[in-house]
Amino acid sequence: MNKIKLIPFLIVMLLLISCSSESQHTESIIVFNSTDRPVIDTYQIKDPEIINSMNEVIRGLMWQDRQIETSGDSDYSFWLQRSNEEMRITNYEIWFNDGDSSAVIVDYIQAKFATIDRIPLEQLIQLLGNERAN
């Protein structure tokens, strides 16, 4: 009789454990830094504060549908992923403008383009460089 009472309890416990583990997706940004060609530095940013700060900077850009011309390979490529998911949530590439303190960023998920002025560009570069703190 005690075994019969134990089975529903175990089922409820298993359901609670599985539900709580499903909701704990961790986010990370995967970064390919190719500013020091031919070496490409690859790293992962897991700090939620850095991820949120990067999202704030990117949301503040003036995005447009019109393509902005770029040349060569991008200087940075980065995307946001959640653990246990293969699909990228965001996917960006940045090209620095030669002789200028601006850059072009492409959002491949939304198919949008933006010019990044000096201050937001400096903020992004600083945040992208914080991978060593993780």
Summarize the structure.
With 134 residues, the chain is of the alpha+beta class. It has three helices and six strands.
Describe this structure in words.
The structure is a single chain. With 134 residues, this protein is an alpha+beta fold. Helix content is 33%, strand content 27%. The chain has 3 helices and 6 strands; from the N terminus they run H-E-E-H-E-E-E-E-H. A 6-stranded antiparallel sheet has the order 2-1-3-4-5-6. Helix 2 runs antiparallel to helix 3. The longest helix has 21 residues. The radius of gyration is 21 Å and the shape is elongated. The chain starts with a helix and ends in a 6-residue tail after the last helix.
Count the helices. How many?
Answer: 3
Radius of gyration: 21 Å
Helix-strand makeup class: alpha+beta
Tell me about the largest β-sheet: 6 strands, antiparallel
Give unreliable regions as ranges.
none
Q: What's the β-strand tally? A: 6
Strand content: 25-35%
Q: How helical, in percent, are the residues?
A: 25-40%
Quaternary structure = single chain
**Strand order within the widest beta sheet:** 2-1-3-4-5-6
- The span between the termini is 52 Å
Q: State mean pLDDT (0 to 100 scale).
A: 82
| Global morphology | elongated
SSE arrangement, N to C: HEEHEEEEH
